[in-house]
Amino acid sequence: MMSVTFHGVRGSTPCHCDDTRHFGGNTSCVSLHAEGEVPIIFDLGTGLRYFGKRVNGTAKFHAVCLLTHLHYDHTMGLPFFEPLLRADTTFEIYAPKQPDGRSVKELFLEKIKPPMFPIPLEQFAASLVFHEVGDDDFTVGNMQVRSRYVPHVGPTLGFRVSHAGTTVTYLSDHQQPAGDEFSLADGARDLCEEADLLIHDAQFTAAEFEQKASWGHSTYAYAQWVAETCRVKRLALFHHDPSRTDASLDMIAKDVAAAASVDVFAAREGETVDVVTCSA
Ligand SMILES: [Zn+2]
Ligand SMILES: [Zn+2]
Asked: Which of 56, 78, 116, 237 is the most core-located residue (most Cβ within 10 A)?
């Protein structure tokens, strides 16, 4: 059986305050655990620091990150990941190939160094291994991973991970098509079809989307439509807008759950969800 734990559920920027305390204020980071396999971490937002605290001190720590894209809200947790301070840590990062040919490793080395960060990334003791992927199918241990480019702002991947008949899809930042007609790019459909759990961008209300239709994100209604169209079993609303309060998020999640033909919940920081197979 697989389980996922949400360490950061926000988009754009961390937002810790009284009225976001319940759902949490850290940016995108979700860990996936399958029995006997290395942990998979979706994205490196500020939630990564809290995952790091859980596993810090583990001898010969080995984990695999599936990184959707390089925006700050998905990468700014990396230098605060405590296992990187240990020489017996191996951290593999699968990240999207860049169209300009620049390597992802080079881009991280450029970003994490003085004067933007006190220590250059190459001075961290851990082994960091980068793999660049696009529309690919590969394995991590006994887990099958599918990566596909999806519409967002800049090169962005979504991921589908299957293990022992159970499937989790992570589609964090996903541009909803402009206009009233919903549609789905082939790559995104490849990821979502009949997943047991779909973690999907749900940043905007319909009114917000009208103002921010080109910002690279989705509405709750679109996330629901994708889940229903692809016959997923469970939908986690994710990448919450930093301005969304606990009260409004609660209300929206209830409304979507009442209207949807699939099981729906709003992802909450600190929560662990068991992933049950569709055929169970
Ligand atoms: Zn984002
Ligand atoms: Zn983004």
From this structure: 237
Q: Among the CATH numbers 3.90.79.10, 3.40.50.970, 3.30.300.20, 3.60.15.10, which is that of 2-275?
A: 3.60.15.10
As beta bridge partners, residue 275 has 2
**Residue in this structure with the two tokens 């229903």, named with its chain if needed:** 228
Cα 163 from Cα 37, distance rounded (Å): 10
Q: Give the distance (Å) from ligand 2 centre to CA of residue 68.
A: 8
- What are 100-159's pLDDT values in tens digits? 999 999 999 999 999 999 999 999 999 999 999 999 999 999 999 999 999 999 999 999
Cα 153 to ligand 1 centroid, rounded to whole Å:
10
Residue spans per domain, the chain: 2-275
Distance of CA 87 from the midpoint of ligand 2 (Å) = 31
Q: Which residue has the tokens 């402009």?
A: 178
Query: How far is Cα 98 from Cα 218, in angstroms, rounded to an integer?
Result: 23
* Spatial separation of the C-alpha atoms in residues 232 and 73, rounded to whole Å: 26
Quote the pTM value.
Answer: 0.97
Q: Ligand 1: distance of its center to the CA of 74 in Å?
A: 6
